[in-house]
Design a protein that fits this description.
TIM Barrel, eight-stranded parallel beta barrel, 41% helix, 505 residues, 21% strand, three-stranded antiparallel β-sheet, binds manganese (II) ion, alpha/beta, 18 helices, 18 strands
Amino acid sequence: MKNEKIFIFDTTLRDGEQVPGASLTKAEKLEIAIQLEKLNVDMIEGGFPASSPGDLESVQEISKAVKKPIIAGLCRAVKKDVDACVIALKKAKRPRIHTFIGTSPQHVKFITRTTNEEVLRRAVESVKYAKTFCDDVEFSAMDATRTGFDYLCKVVEEVIKAGATTVDIPDSVGYTTPEEFGALIKKLMNTVPNINKAIIAVHCHNDLGMATANSLAAAMNGARQIECTINGLGERAGNAALEEVVMALRTRADIYGFDTNIKTEEIYKTSKMVSRLTGMPVQPNKSVVGANAFAHASGIHQDAILKNESTFGIMTPSTIGIPGHELILTSRSGRHAISHRLADLGFKVSDAEMAAKLYPKFLQIADKKKEVFDEDLIAMMEGEGRKGKETYHLESIYSATGSKIIPTTTIEISKAGKMYTQASTGDGPVDATYKAINAIVKADLKLVDYQIKSITKGEEAQGEVTIRVRKGDKEITARGVSTDIIEASAKAYLNAVGKFEGKKK
Ligand code: MN
């Protein structure tokens, strides 16, 4: 028997974009919407057209360019808001008008400053009005989890009668718990007489860290649409994270028994794009998409994962579009992990040699540094008089930049005793450096991410450049360290070139 579907409604461009500091340009919103289409979400909430002319235009552009998912526009239960949605969604192939009003005593009393009867009347009127333009109408009872049950039932019943095809029960303030929310959805399903005429949706916030759990509890009790955002972006503590909801449903299909339409291999790419364009970093220990989500640091775990990925990995990185497990080498790493990395770098070592000489040496280095990089391992092996794979070495670099000159880099690199020199100009000194290196190594690499941070304190601080580079469908991370940030950038890039050449063999 085929599993039932849970529809994934992405609101990154509406609830996520509403976050202070996360605002996106029209072009950026469109770029994300196109990626969300590749991710194969069922609905994209493109914005809140009545909130600003820019938002209206964004929804218009997304409606023009993105044809596969349903495009939703949000509007208050107010005629002119609905009108703005209608204009914004005119070109959409599958438009949805999403209208809402607060139904909790707090919202009725302090926001609309009216009575329950009046709120119900406006909700019904708004759905009926939206319905004159669009078959697909969603209604949200804002702050549903703090709304009295009998009144909530009445609202749900009446908006379905008025024509709502989806009814959302949002936990707008992130207050509910999985047990309570699951029970609420179940009770609604059993109480509202016409509830099977609409899809029940949920929209959970993460104020108590339970947005994903609450959404899944709702699905177990009858909800069939989950509203979520990439990286859990959204008001305050954010919304349920799409990647968590989707990967929980997939990884524990044995418990949930649902499918989604999401192409999970696009998750990582989407997460990176949203983080880059919104300028909202992803915490390293974030579920599914954090930098450490698939990185194993403990020695016992590293050893096990090299033997078999299923030992400590419940998902494979490739499922969400990451090329491989990243083993971070630290003082807790075991011999097996180090031998493995050394082999990647072209050094074959025996177990005896590792135990007697190399491992104690590695621990000395690891005690001084938090993380041991490839170049540390190479230096260690060269100190032992060993030669690894022939890779490029940075011999010298000269970089000139300023506000009135064209950034220029002259670089000298060597490989297997041969010297290469190249000069290039670029948009900035790093760009000029990478162009010069590309001219020598002729590797068709695409820089997808560049980060710089200081790893020591004071004036002599070492800068560490971490880059992510793509070649074809392969992506790798490489680092470079120097007191000079341009030199660190060059070293990171040469390391990346070396890693790709190593993979070819
Ligand atoms: Mn919200």
